[in-house]
Amino acid sequence: QVQLVESGGGLVQAGGSLRLSCAASGRTFSLYAMAWFRQAPGKEREFVAMIKNSASTYYADSVKGRFTISRDNAKNTVYLQMNNLKPEDTAVYYCAKDRRPLYSGTDYTANDLYDVWGQGTQVTVSS
Q1: What is the pLDDT of residue 106?
Q2: Residue 50, phi then psi, degrees to nearest 5
Q3: Are 57 and 33 in contact (CB under 8 A)?
Q4: pLDDT (tens digit, 0 to 9) for every residue of the chain, 127 residues total?
């Protein structure tokens, strides 16, 4: 069973940067798309970014141009580089594994497309 462990969250001032990491166990990491979601207090969990096994990337409009998702298959790790952070980026950030191996389609934002989730890491952006 794959397990995901996030790290890299913290407190940062508006305009600052953070890099989140998500380390995965298991041998099949490279076959699956990986994504980052976030959940702010009182809000539903929302899609942030996704990277396919082909390295194609997709972003929510709210983070496009500021966040970059990447992966290192040799290290079984996916990253989220977050620049120009805003107070509205404050949330618990989760990484997730797509349930569909070698997925090549364009359906990637729904929570139920992902079958393994990390424990989350808190990101707080002060104004």
Answers
A1: 87
A2: -145, 145
A3: no
A4: 889 999 999 999 999 999 999 999 988 999 999 999 999 999 999 999 999 998 999 999 999 999 999 999 999 999 999 999 999 999 999 999 999 999 888 889 999 999 999 999 999 999 9
Tokens of 26: 């298991």
Bridge pairing between strands 57-59 and 46-51: antiparallel
Structure tokens at 109: 């934002």
Distance CA 53, CA 68 (A): 16
* Gap between the Cα atoms of 14 and 24, Å rounded: 30
Tell me the CA end-to-end span of the chain in Å, nearest whole number.
Answer: 40
CA distance 24 to 95: 10
Distance CA 2, CA 35 (A): 14
- Which of these, 10, 8, 25, lies nearest to 79 by C-alpha position? 8
Nearest-angstrom CA–CA distance, 98 and 116: 8
Q: Are 9 and 122 in contact (CB under 8 A)?
A: yes
Chain CA centroid to CA 118, Å: 10
